[in-house]
Design goal:
It is built from 8 helices and 16 strands. α1 links the parallel β2 and β3. By secondary structure, it is of the alpha+beta class. The protein is globular and about 50 Å long. The longest helix is centred in the C-terminal third of the chain and has 15 residues. It has a single domain, classed as Double-stranded beta-helix (4-Layer Sandwich). Helix content is 25%, strand content 24%. The strands form 4 sheets. It has a 7-stranded mixed sheet, covered by helices on one side. Keywords: Dioxygenase, Iron, Metal-binding, Oxidoreductase. Its cofactor is Fe(2+). Pfam families: TauD (PF02668).
Length: 313
């Protein structure tokens, strides 16, 4: 059997703002990528933090194969079970209670949050349903000197039972699908302590590691923690640090989960929105002092070994 020779793809990155986001043209994510294109695409994600590909046609297998060019994949989620024959993918279906309308970095409540995420738009509402991303590296760089010096020394506790979880709790009383998601989120609590400022393992950039799973500042009283987290979080999500994407069915978003936050805008009423996500395993976040993040509660080892437990054949 002869090896398949892959023709190089001409990749074009069209920036969406001066600092964050780009549309990638000339890449078919449903076909195998040559090494040069894969390297260019990774470089584009690291540079622009989040990139978008229009008009893609993906199966479970092709989304997994594409995502694996960024590294070893995790299982779909550390708490929620994936579909039996799709162990490496997490489906977010608004008609099954999934919202994600809270600023967050994915899964920071485990000691190794994902490095990258790949999200495929399957069913998109006729109006609304955009997603926003915030550049946590640009936010760190633009902090006032005094606040940056303070952030450099902080450690933050992240939990699966958090303000993010509260978006489901509020609606649970009147929506059983949302109630089921909330019960799942709090059924198995994970907690991890991370540096407030992490050093990116590839670019060396410093970014603020916060978001909706951040619950308190280690060593500070509750009220002081909440006040300080609010100040830092509001700085991350200033409009100058954000980009907003209007989805079409077949769109693919790839983002650097080590340097961004995102927010799925829930402004589409009873319409249906379905997106499918794969996540690339990441390293333990490390602060500027060299101290790594640590797990406090919960064992996420099964989540990290997702790629070694594939059963979709």
């Amino acid at each position: 059997m002869t090896d398949t020779v892959l023709a190089p793809t001409r990749l074009e990155a069209v920036p969406l703002t001066g600092t964050l986001g780009a549309e990638i043209r000339g890449v078919d994510a449903g076909r195998p990528l040559d090494d040069g294109t894969a390297a260019e695409l990774r470089a584009a994600v690291l540079r622009h933090k989040v990139v978008f590909l229009r008009d893609q046609q993906l199966t479970y297998e092709s989304q997994v194969a594409f995502s694996e060019r960024f590294g070893e994949l995790t299982s779909g989620h550390p708490i929620f079970a994936s579909a039996e024959r799709e162990p490496l993918r997490r489906e977010m279906d608004s008609h099954k209670g999934m919202r994600a309308n809270h600023w967050h970095t994915d899964l920071t409540f485990v000691d190794r949050p994902p490095a990258f995420a790949v999200l495929y738009g399957v069913v998109i509402p006729p109006v609304g349903g955009d997603t926003m991303w915030a550049d946590a590296a640009a936010a760190y760089a633009s902090l006032p000197d005094e606040l940056r010096d303070l952030a450099d020394r902080l450690r933050i506790v992240h939990s699966s039972d958090s303000d993010y979880t509260s978006i489901y709790e509020r609606e649970a009383a009147t929506n059983e699908a949302v109630a089921a998601v909330h019960r799942g989120m709090v059924s198995q609590v994970f907690q991890a302590e991370h540096p407030a400022v992490r050093v990116h393992p590839e670019t060396g950039e410093r970014s603020l590691l916060l978001g909706g799973f951040a619950t308190r500042v280690a060593g500070l009283p509750r009220q002081a923690s909440r006040d300080l987290l609010r100040v830092l979080q509001e700085h991350v999500t200033r409009p100058e640090h954000t980009v907003r994407w209007k989805w079409r069915s077949g769109d693919l978003a790839i983002w650097d989960n080590q340097a961004t936050q995102h927010y799925a805008v829930f402004d589409y009423g009873d319409a249906r929105r379905v997106c499918q996500r794969t996540t690339v395993a990441g390293p333990v976040p490390v602060g500027i002092d060299g101290r790594p993040g640590v797990a406090l509660t919960g064992d996420a080892s099964a989540y990290y070994t997702g790629a070694t437990s594939r059963n979709a054949d």
